[in-house]
Amino acid sequence: MVQHNAAPAAFANVVLLNTAGKVEQGALTQENGSFRLAVKSGRYTVRISYVGLAPWERTLQLEKDTSLGIVTLKEQEGRLREVVITGGRKLVEQQPDRLIFNVENSIAAVGGNALNALGAAPGVLVQHNVISMLGKGASRVMINGRMIELTGEDLAAYLSSISAADIKNIEIITNPPARYDAAGAGGLININLKKGAANAWKNTTVLSYDQNAYAFYSLRNSFLYQRNKLRLAASIGGKTGYLKTREELKTYYVKGLWQLGIDGKEKQENLNGSVAVDYDFTDNISAGVQYAGQHNNPDRSDVATIAIHDEAGSVASYLINRGQNDIGNTSHTLNAHLIAKLDTQGRRFSFDLDRFVYRSGIDNQFAASSYSSEMAFLLTGQMARNVSEQHIYNTSATVDFDYPMKAFRLNYGAKLSFITSKSGGDYYNTISGRPVWEQERSNRFDYREYNQAAYASGSKTFNAHISLQLGLRLEHTTTEGHSPPKPGWYVNSYLKLFPSLSFSYKMNDDHGWVLNYGRRITRPGFRDLNPYRSYLNSKSYSEGNPFLQPALNDNLEVAYTYKGKFRTNAFLHITSNGFGVIFKADRATNTQTVIRENYYKEYAFGIGENYTGNITPWWESSNDLYLLSSRTWFHGIDAVPLNGEQLYFNTVNAFSLSRATKLQVDFLYSSPFKKGLYEIGYRMRFNIGIKHSMLNNRLQLAAFVNDVFNTAYLKDYNSVVNSIRQEYSQNNSSRYFRLSLTYQFGNSNLDIRKRSGGNDEERKRAD
After folding, report:
1. Whether the Cβ atoms of residue 417 and residue 395 lie closer than 8 Å to each other
2. Which of 22, 115, 412, 444 could form a disulfide with 456 if both were Cys (CB 3.0 to 4.6 A apart)?
């Protein structure tokens, strides 16, 4: 295993030279620092190098499988008087089981947050508070390899508190191996935060201004420090201002159309911070703690206008709801970890203990008034106050072993996770001028989830062309839900196996094939399970379903790569016992409801082409073209499945106008399509941004316009349930302008003093 500063050195160059000095084999180290080369017996020189570090060499007589143990790369001695950087990491990197989106190279993410960065990542869709991969279901999100136990609005709020300036890259893992949690139909998205350079400190300050119909400001400061055995990362940030929201819903009742329009103003008020400390106690043992916390106040005021039409199509009356939402959410994330290297053969043990706390509350006050077709006031029919809260607590412990063997590499481990959620809501009728609590519209919901998992995976490189990885994960889950004053608990318990397979065949340096298969599970979110009715306005409410069952997902993917630039990908994604949101309308009361049900089985499939590379020395381009389709079957609902095809095209282009100035131009088009319960309208997005570096790259000024033509929002989201058609659209400031200023300063030449030890002479003799 190759390491630097006691941490695995990923993507280091490894070459094997014969006695004539010619390269026989070459490879890059994996994320855990390991590598494998296959050659015939003989005398060779192994050379390992990494930019900025001193190369490592050793001559060996190879007659059998040989392990180099732990190879430590050291700092390059001496200084260069001048360094001219002519290249860097690509915007998008392709690996057999994932794509890596280098956020720090994307102008679209400069000055934004993690949610903005995900929206700019190739093949990732962020819409209606759902994060998903192209052609697949919702994805789960990890931070530094640790799962975030949030979904929907709660996850979106949490990610909005993380600055894109703190993100190194985003890994888009379509078929995760067995060591990762099995949750997430759409695979896993791992957000890796930045780490400090060796024996250096750096401070980064980012100030940004976002303008849509309203404006908000963001300020972030991050500090990275690393010296000898100590590594420190700390950041603090916040934002203030407002965001415009717009929703529309048309419901075609038998007696006439109800046309709903909601215009809102949402506060952007957030304060967040984090700190991480790691220390190398010895060359083989390191440990650390991390904390991240945030408080968010997305208070919202809105006006919902319902135009009620008669059977002839004329407006008969208006119903206007005026609402004021006082919203707050707070989260705390704490991690403690230990990493121990067991021997010189690369055997490694790691232990993580995690605690996650999330609290949210909503105080929604609204009044509904009726008006004539000429907008003459008639009466106020309803006034109410809906107060709700949710507390989520998650504790987990994970242990992993990395165990290289002579025949293959073995990984195994286990995880225990405990989740509790307490939520409740009180409904008060305030039309009389004083609040009157209504028990039938109020509730409490307690939820507990216990998950025990164990996994094992093995990988083997047979020769320079063929490698195989097999994995099996076993998860036992028990869920319990209780809604007082109703008696009893909703209990569900299940034991599931999740196999995974990855087979790669590299014909030569130009041609390679990868076959991936994996089974995953999609568990309902906490809000999905809560039976409480959350009132959006007087004629619309949302409620969960405590009887929801998890969905199972089987993923099969075949990919062909050519010269590391072209990637052809075909996939089949099967969802069994699928669940989701259903928009229903009540004929008797003309009330719109948002419910959750297990109601479908789906086969989703597609084929696509990706090109990532430099078209010219100054033009880097990443392009995706996909043809997608699906076949769906319903059960338990009065609706007809919709099946159709979708064309998806996305191009991201970075132009180096000079050494200091870069231009980025993005274009996305998604054709209208039908899938499952819904018809979905087209999306088209054109983005443009420019970044200029000054003061020896310490000061950066960036300007970015997202969705120039305001055509990328969710539109024509249509469904027909119980013979009633509904058409929905949502535009939460899809078009906006961002101006950001980033200033970096630091010191990469910290004085390193070695402490003498009583056994210095003995250690020198052992080197």
Report:
1. yes
2. 412
